[in-house]
């Protein structure tokens, strides 16, 4: 290896090259080549998701630029980790697949920071917002100047279609004729609506929400498309309940009344109008909260099984199966465990079983949290209020009348 950075004209095949300055243009991965017709390397699809977040800050305020640089290095060195800044609280957040993954990330971060020390805050779980019913009626939203009106609905996506999007098997390319044909033949979508998908949002997340133009014979719809897509991008990244990302929602614009003058339906009018419409549609379609769930595999001796059961069930877990290993005294337990209950699970399990059980946790799926988040006293309501408190939002939960307008 070369001891220092050098300027090279060429490198023979079979060598690994480290290029300086490329991090300005690529954060995770990409393909560099001189031939425009060459096929780019595909991004990796992970079976896990960054569902656990922790805030980090330097011990000394003067080390903040070092922390920002170190987080950039961490984001480019690990394809799965997501480093962000919370705009409201100003916290520097690092999201990973679980406790162990984040421990490794923080060890790397400290290495990048050198002598500057960091403080790590308590972990936070990422939730998602969704809906479980179709809006009973069209909701109405007016633009700030009252010259434009949008009518729309929200409904849950088909579970199989949602799985296809999340697994990366579906090419999320609005306007693709193959996509429209697939949706109409496999999921019985209306052909015109399947051809008029405007966006898969949010682009920075899982693309698992759709904005559909379901209007017929309405003028100027193509002119407001960009504003509606921008609003959808904003809304799906920050849902109405607790500003958590949305998942599995189909928003459909059913009708609109638009001003004939282009200046009166510009972005400053249509983006707030579409945002209000989508939030109102979400609230009208029985909103619910989704929580991430781990699949836990525990290997333990037969006499320690009872301790494993009590540890899992105490944390809202669900036992799936118990399989004895051939010709050994070992048993393999499989169970679902909500990510929110997983912190400290490994140490609690060791205590319960005398250190004889070995757990492995993988992100598996998202599940609905019990109860209506808008009903006081339910589990979902408590979680939503806790998230809102943490983010500095009002303790009063949103109502449909806050967003929906009347004729």
Strand content: 15-25%
Tally of individual domains:
3
- Poorly predicted sequence stretches spanning 5 or more consecutive residues: none
Q: Report how far apart the termini are.
A: 72 Å
Using the coordinates above, name the CATH class of the largest domain: Alpha Beta
Jot down its keywords.
single chain, 407 residues, alpha+beta, Alpha-Beta Plaits, Ribosomal Protein S5, domain 2, five-stranded antiparallel β-sheet, five-stranded mixed β-sheet, 10 helices, 14 strands, 28% helix, globular
What's this, in brief?
With 407 residues, the protein is an alpha+beta fold.
Protein model, in words:
By secondary structure, this protein is an alpha+beta fold. It folds into three domains: 49-126, Elongation Factor G (Translational Gtpase), domain 3 (Alpha-Beta Plaits); 130-286 and 397-402, Ribosomal Protein S5, domain 2 (2-Layer Sandwich), CATH 3.30.230.10; 291-368, Alpha-Beta Plaits, CATH 3.30.70.240. Helices cover 28% and strands 25% of the residues. Strands 5, 11, 12, 13 and 14 form a five-stranded antiparallel beta sheet that branches. It has a five-stranded mixed beta sheet with strand order 6-7-10-9-8. α1 packs across α2 (99-113) and α6 crosses α7 (267-284). The longest helix has 18 residues, at 267-284.
Helix and strand layout, with pairings?
Layout: E1 52-58, H1 64-77, E2 82-85, E3 92-96, H2 99-113, E4 118-125, E5 128-131, E6 139-142, E7 149-156, H3 159-167, H4 177-186, H5 191-195, E8 197-201, E9 209-213, H6 225-237, E10 249-257, H7 267-284, E11 287-301, H8 305-313, E12 318-324, E13 330-338, H9 345-353, E14 358-368, H10 379-390
